[in-house]
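so i finally got all the pieces together for this one. its two components total, 894 residues if u count the protein bits. some of the lines might not be protein, just check the labels. i wanna see the whole assembly predicted at once instead of chain by chain like last time, that was a mess tbh
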Amino acid sequence: YIRTDQNFIYFNDPKWSNMWYIHCSDRSGRCRSEMNILAAWQRGYTGKNVVVTILDDGIERNHPDLAQNYDQLASYDVNGNDHDPTPRYDSSNENKHGTRCAGEVAAVANNSHCIVGIAYNARIGGIRMLDGDVTDVVEAKSLGIRPDYIDIYSASWGPDDDGKTVDGPGPLAKQAFELGIKKGRKGLGSIFVWASGNGGRQGDHCSCDGYTNSIYTISISSTTENGNKPWYLEVCSSTLAATYSSGEFYDRKIVTTDLRQRCTDGHTGTSVSAPMVAGVIALALEANPLITWRDVQHLLVKTSRPVHLKASDWKTNAAGHRVSHLYGFGLVDADAMVVEAKKWRSVPPQHVCTRTSERRTKYIRPDQILNSTIATSGCADHPDQHVVYLEHVVVRVLIVHPRRGDLQINLISPAGTRSQLLAKRLFDNSNEGFRNWEFMTVHCWGEKAEGQWTLEILDSPSQLRNPEVLGKLKEWTLILYGTSEHPYNSHYSPHHSRSRMLEIPSPGQERKEPDLLLQETPDEEEVDEYNGPCHTECGDQGCDGPEADHCLNCIHFSLGNIKSGRTCVSYCPLGYHEDVEARRCRRCYRGCEKCAGRAHNQCTSCRRGLYLCAEEHTCVEMCPLGYFPDEIQKQCLPCHENCMMCLRDADRCTACNEGYSLAGMTCVPECANGTFFHLEEMKCSACHLSCSTCTGPGMEECIQCAKDFLLQEWRCVPACTEGYYPGEAVGLPQQICRKCEENCLTCHGAGRNCTKCRDGYSLISGTCIINATCNNADEVFCEMVKSNRLCEKKLFRQFCCRTCLMTG
Amino acid sequence: LPSRNIYTNHWAVRISGGREEADKLATKYGYNNLGQIGSLEDHYHFHHSKVVRRSAFSLRGSHSFINMDPKVHWIQQQVVKSRVKR
C-alpha cells in the first residue's frame, strides 16, 4: 500500500479517478499502485522525446486524447500501403484494438479527455498491419519501419491460441527482429514489447508462440487487481514481467481511449500489459536514452518484484531473483526503473554459447521421464563465446511424436532451477512433432552457465494411442546467452536495486519451496483403537481411520453431513462456500457455482447455462435490459452506454436508449429534424434541404421529405415530374409521387386518368392504346374484343383495341 | 488435420544487384516489384496480378519459373498467417 503523498499529482481527465493502477486518489484504501508510475512522474519522467509505435489494426490519430502526441513519422499503413494508419471503421468497431493500446502508452494528460497515458509526453504512432492478410512480408515490413526513429514497438497479438498451433515469426520477420536489434536506435537496438501468451481459449501454452519465445521480445503477462492469476493467463518460462490488467468481474478494470473518440474500460487481457510496459520503458529511456535493448531487459529483471502477486511456483533462482512462470520476475516498478536507468552502466557484450546433444535418437516412452543431459563449460575455450553469467536460455528440439499435445518438457539448470518449457495441450493432436522449435526460459537469469543441463521429457497420453508408435528425441541444442563477466561490475555501480527493499513477501510462502510444504508431516498423536496415521486434513481430535472421512474434526473444512457422509477437505468444491468460522462447506444457493454465502444474492459465479448479475450477485438465465450474457466470463456485462439491448458484445447494440437511434450496431444520438448523425465526424449534420429525415447528406438518402416536397423514387422533389402524379401513401404523412400508367406521359391519377400518351399510343377514354391498327377488326374479332372487354386488360390491349374502339 | 494454408499472390524474393535488377526480373516473369521489404537488404516484395489472390494451393504456372532463375537466391510465396489480438 502507498501512503498518500503530499505533492500528489491530479489531472482533470474524466477517467483519472478510475486509474487505480496509477494512483490512490479515491482514498478508498484499496489502492494497488505498486507499479509506482506516479513516483516516476514525480521525478519528472513522462516519456519526453521517446517514440513508441503500436503494431496493430491502426490508430485513431485524431482522437482528442492522442492527437497532440501523435507522430506521423512513427506511423504507416502496411495494409493500405500509405502513411495514414487511421483504422477502417465499420459497424462492429472491430478495428478498435490499436487505438485502445495507444491510449495506455501516451494519452495526453490534463486535457479533460478520457485518461492519462503512462508516458503521457511520449510520441505515439501506429502501424496498421492486422487489418488484412497478415503474411511474413507484412510482419517484416511492420517490424522494420524507421528503426532509427522509433524507439519502442509494442504488439498485443500473436498466433492462434487454439491449443494446437505452433507458430511464430517467419524467416523475414526473424531477420527484421535481428536487424532491428543490431541496427535499430542507431545501434542500441530497437525495443520490442510483446503481450505474453493469452489463453483466451483454454488448453494452450504460450511456449508455442514464437514471438514471446524470442529473446528479442520483452514478453509481458498480467495480474488482476488482487494479485490473482487472471482466468486467461498461460504459464510461460519466457515471460519477463507483469502489469495489472483485467480479471474477474469484481476486479477493477483498466481504462483507455476507444475508437470513435470514446473511452472504454473494455480493454482486457495481456493486450493491456504490453503497452503499459512500453510506457514504463519510455520513462526509463527518457532517464537514460543510451541504454541498449539488453540493458532494458536487465533493468526489468532487476526492478520487477513479486509484491502481492499470488503464484504457486514463486522460486528464487541461484542468482537471487524471484521468478515465476506466471509473472516472470514480477510486477514492473516504473520508479525503480527510472532510478536504475539513470545510473545504469551498459552490460558487457552478449556472448552466445551453443551446445548440441549427441545425435543418438532416444525413445520417449509413455509415462516415463526421458532425461537427456548436456554438460558445458559455457564455451570457456572460446573467449568470444564464453558465457559465465546467463541471460536467456534457448532449447531447440527435434522431436518426432504421434501426438504432440501429450508432451511436457522441462529444463533443469546446473543450479537446479527448473523451467517448464512446455505443458500438455489437450487439443494438440498433431503428429508433426517439433521440428527445430525453439523454447526459451529466463528463469536462469544471472545464474552460472557452467555445469550439467538436463532436458526432461514426459509423455502422458491423453487418449488411446498405438503403443507401438513411440515418440523420439532426435537431438536438442542448448543455446546459452549471457556475458563472460559479471553484468554489474560491482566496483562501479551499486546496482543494488531499491526494489529489493520494497519487496513485500507474501506471508508464509516466500522462503519455502512448494514441494517442501507438502513434505511436512502433521503431528503424530495417539488416537484410540485406530493408531495408524490420520489423513492430512484431520484436525487435532484425530481420526478413526486413514481416510479423510475418518477424521473426528477437520483442519480446514468439513464437507457433507451425517446423512450423506462427512469428509474433510482443504477447500470446498464448486457449489459450496467456505464458512471459515464453522470450518464447514456450505451449499450455495441453487444455480450458484461459487458463492460468498448461502443467500441467493451471494453468488460469485454461476453454473452452466446461467449468467451472473454482478450488481445483485445473483445467477439468471436471461440478463436484464442493458446487459448481455458474456459467454466467456459467464456473466451479464453492461451494454455500451446508450445501448438498451446488445448482442454478445457491449458494442453490438440492437436497441438504443431514449434519445438515441441505431446506426449499424452503434447507438448514436437522435438528431433533430433535417439532420442525420455523421458516424465519422460523430456529430449531427444537415440533410439535403429537400429532406426532413435522412441517412446521409445526399438527395437519394432521404427517408422523409421536407414540407412542400414529395417523395419520388427515393428522392424528394418540389413537384412530381412528368409520368408521375401526387397521391396518398399509406402510413406516410405526406403525399408521394406515383407513376402514371404504362405508356402514359402525364396523368392526374391511376387507372383511366391519363392525359397524354407516349409516342405510338393514342389516348382513348383515359388510357393509352397502341396505335397499331388491324385491318380486319370487323371480320375477325372486334366484337369479341369488345364483348369480352379485353381492352380493359393491359395484356390484350394491343389486339386492335384502338381500331375496335374507334369504330365504336 | 494440419490447418490448411491460404496462399496469396505475393512473394518475397532475395535478389542481389539492387532495385534495377529486381525490377528487371519482376518484369521478366510478370510480377510487380513493390519494393524492398523494410530494411532487409536484397529482399523484395513481388506481386503477381494474374495469380489468384487467395488459394488453398500454391498454384503453378509461368510465374513459377522465377524459382529457377539463377539470380534468385531465395523466394517465398506468402501465406496468410492467423494472428489473434490478445
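The two ends of chain A are 106 Å apart (CA to CA).
Confidence is low (pLDDT under 50) at residues 490-528 of chain A.
anyway lmk what u think
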